[in-house]
Specification:
The protein has helices at 19-30, 43-50, 83-102, 119-131; strands at 36-39, 60-64, 68-78, 105-117. By secondary structure, it is α+β, with helices and mostly antiparallel strands.
Length: 132
């Protein structure tokens, strides 16, 4: 009589994402939203962006767990645009894109408006920065 072992072998497989990947997804998701003139990062982000070929994640901070993520964005709001309506659109596109691409539930989206400018003022500031 043959004896069978009832041992269960468990295979543990895991899919994980670097924070920078989730940040990049969030950044790309909001890139074309009307009302955001720029994502505002810190000084390190500005310097690093000049020497890198990677898509910038300036203005985006994330915390990524195994099943959930939280996203913080810093933006310059275009004058005359509704921050409340823009916030709702940002939450929707960030949650949808991250969920679709990673399976992570975005449990928190925070948007910090760091400045407000007219489009004309913003363009003038960009031209002044490129002249330096």
């Amino acid at each position: 009589m043959t004896e069978r072992k009832n041992e269960t072998q468990q295979h543990v497989s895991k899919l994980t994402f670097e924070d920078k990947v989730v940040a990049k997804i969030a950044r790309i998701a909001v890139d074309d939203l009307d009302g955001i003139l720029e994502m505002k990062g810190n000084l390190f982000d500005s310097v690093a962006g000049r020497f890198s070929n990677e898509q910038s994640t300036a203005g985006v901070d994330v915390e990524v767990g195994e099943k959930e993520a939280a996203v913080d964005l810093q933006i310059i709001l275009e004058y005359g645009k509704s921050a409340v309506q823009l916030f709702e659109r940002i939450k929707k596109v960030v949650q949808e894109n991250i969920k679709a691409m990673t399976g992570l539930n975005v449990v928190e989206v925070n948007v910090n408006v760091v400045d407000v400018m007219t489009r004309k003022e913003y363009q003038r500031n960009k031209e002044d920065d490129s002249d330096k």
